[in-house]
Amino acid sequence: MNRTPLGRVGQVKQITSLSNPVIKEIRALGLKKNRDRSSSFMTEGLKLVIDALDQGWQIRTLVYAKDAKSNANVENVAARTVAAGGLVLEVPQKVLGAITRRDNPQMVCGVFEQRYTALKDMHPKPGETYIALDRVRDPGNLGTIIRTADAAGASGLVLVGDSTDPFSLETIRATMGSIFSVPVARSDIDGFLKWRDARDALLVGTHLDGAIDYRTIDYAAAPTILLMGNEQAGLPAGLVERCDRLARIPQSGRADSLNLAVATAVMLFEARRHLLEV
């Protein structure tokens, strides 16, 4: 690793006050309207910042705690930020804690440009699996699903309808960095159905009244899109009737349903089991 001492990195600004305009702007990213207005979001932790940079995401601002100044990895990330045209800020621990809303914050956070994949650019191919989420509302569920999609080797995720923000801090935390590896698109219902109809892919929806055991579906026959419903309402009738297969996950206990992230994981690993077997 090429080490560049932070004292020699240009554009490093030392900020000590929470009232600084740049700090206020970063803190404002806690609200979706501000993330949308600036098309940016924040991620915390050195590993996640490095993951984002390695995956080619555009960094706008790097913030590091003054105590991390001598850390070689932080110095390297600061140099990469400057090289990418970003701003580097050195702040006290209390300022970093206020930015991340944590009592014991990690020593680094970064502000990155949002990135969505255009739905038209997703072309399901044999051996690929996509996840479509209808009106997912819980950021923890969405983040966990993105992380699971990454682990299972899914090719992308589509947010259908009014869904929670994939770039909220809560979602980013739950993805554990997988947000930088999994293409995410968004669409209304009509756009999603037109996209799906133009592609030779198997659309498998999940429903409590599904007629087919999810383990009996031939997922190897074609590219697969797993369609998962809203946490409370499930899939609407308009989407249910367009599915090629309507699957159910058998249950024997007293619980009447599974958590959305858990149900998605069960479906996803079964759909890709023929590809994951060693």
UniProtKB/TrEMBL annotation:
Pfam families, A to Z: MRM3-like_sub_bind, SpoU_methylase
InterPro entries from the UniProt entry: Alpha/beta_knot_MTases, MRM3-like_sub_bind, Ribosomal_eL30-like_sf, rRNA_Methyltransferase, SpoU_MeTrfase, SpoU_subst-bd, tRNA_m1G_MTases_N
Domain RNA 2-O ribose methyltransferase substrate binding: 42-118
Keyword check for Iron: no
SMART domains: SpoU_sub_bind
Gene Ontology BP terms: methylation
GO MF annotations in UniProt: methyltransferase activity
Similarity annotation: Belongs to the class IV-like SAM-binding methyltransferase superfamily. RNA methyltransferase TrmH family.
Name listed for the protein in its UniProt record: RNA methyltransferase
Species annotation: Hoeflea poritis
